Amino acid sequence: MRLYQRAMNWYLDGPRGYPRRPRGRRYRSPALATFWWLLGLGTRLFSLPALLVLPTAVLFFLHSAMLPDARVRWLVLVMITLLATDFILGILFWPRLKIKRVLPDRVCAGQRFQIEYQVENRRNLPALALELDPGLGAYWLRCLKAPALAMLGAKKTTTLQGTYLPRQRGKYFLGQLAGMSGFPFSICRHSSIYKSFDYLLVHPAYHNLMELILPQGLKLQKSGLERIMKVSEAMEFHGCRDYREGDNPRHIHWRSSARRGDLVVREFQDEYLSRTALIVDTCLRHPKRSPSLFRGLKHVWNFFKGKGMLWPDGTVLELEAALSLTAAIAEFLLKGECLIDLFAAGKDVRHLQAGRQVAAFKTLLDILSEIEPEPNPSLRELKEEVLEEISGLGNAIVILLGFDQERRDFVEKLRERGVIVKLLLIGQGWPAPEGTTILEASDILAGRVLKL
């Protein structure tokens, strides 16, 4: 059973020529995986235009085989001659390359970035009509400028750049690095392929907030500085006073002491920071609605207008909006010198403390990049120890993707522990309590939510 499960997971991940994104515990369609495998194997042997023409060419070949006197037979002979010529010349100039891919550390969804390729031709013949990583821009990444080269001389080395646009945030695994030649007629492909273990982190896109009203009763936490004090040993300067026996000589203010003729020391006081919990829900369950033929036809009509897809592609619009909003809130709070405790509820609860010198904003975005939607309720995964830690902060900003009984119980647990909650609900159709800020996912992603 374990071997079958591993083999099935390997098959559902799809061919290694395409970027692979972890799916978590979501359902993955074997039919869709079969399509990608067939496309991947086909484009490894033939170019995409040739692959599209191939079924028609096979029909012509069968027709001419059954009817030798048919006029289409001459067209079939021409096609076979072109295919044989392309195949033989391609074998003679089959590329043997050494390729190195240089990826950026992090990129942002919706913003173009470049990948650098260092290519070395190891043959004594030139490499012709080269294209690198042809499958990289097939789905998750949009290829704006392909890394292609008309000719690379024998034993020569060059550097190419490809420009791509990430469609969605996430952590992508690039398991294959390929250089393919379409010489001479771009019918057959002759490849030089290597295994690679590259990762690309795509941060969620977000828009800066202009105003954020925090929950009333915000606690000032001295205990939250314990980790910071170990790093910087910094305290807020309060003033100067006369030296007393037992004072640290390193705190003597020599300039003031020389002016007064007596020892003067600098006096410090403990610095307090405001801390807030930022809790993100990762489970989406739409409100129950009866089946509607009108909604189904509208969905199909939107697809033909270029909006949405006929089948789910794994993208949960509400979750993407929630993570975008989380990034915007975190960026606003960190600018105000606030300490953030991020909790992403799921099968594995992700917890990060960010602010000052504890963790950088980029680290928080790294965590948001890897979050995948949970098919089951996730807030129940928060244990009592986590709830007690949140209650010690005294306030929380909670971003929910719905408001069913489980989420209602979670909010009540926080309030019973004295936590003042600012509740943000993404989506319509839920019986939300009074004081809840209801937002639309499309407004968040379009940057129309500027004040909270």
Q: SSE string, helix = H, strand = E?
A: HHHHEEEEEEEEEEHEHEEHHEEHHEHEEH
| The CATH C-level class name of the largest domain | Mainly Beta
* Low-pLDDT windows of residues: 218-234, 308-313
The chain-level mean pLDDT equals: 79
Number of helices: 12
Approximate shape: extended
Give the total of domains.
3
The radius of gyration is 30 Å
Please, could you describe this protein's structure?
With 452 residues, the chain is α/β, with parallel strands linked by helices. The chain folds into 3 domains: 11-203, Immunoglobulin-like; 239-269, no CATH class; 273-445, Rossmann fold. 33% of the residues lie in helices and 27% in strands. The chain is built from 12 helices and 18 strands. The protein has helices at 2-12, 30-45, 48-66, 72-92, 226-232, 254-260, 293-304, 317-335, 361-370, 384-393, 405-416, 441-445, and strands spanning 97-102, 106-108, 113-121, 127-132, 141-145, 148-152, 157-166, 170-181, 190-203, 220-221, 236-242, 264-269, 273-280, 339-344, 350-354, 395-400, 420-426, 437-439. Strands 10, 13, 14, 15, 16, 17 and 18 form a 7-stranded mixed beta sheet that branches. Strands 2-9-8-4-6 form a 5-stranded mixed beta sheet. A 4-stranded antiparallel beta sheet has the order 1-3-7-5, with no helix packed on it. Strand 16 (395-400), helix 11 (405-416) and strand 17 form a beta-alpha-beta unit. The longest helix has 21 residues, at 72-92. It is extended and about 110 Å long. The model is unreliable at 218-234 and 308-313 (pLDDT under 50).
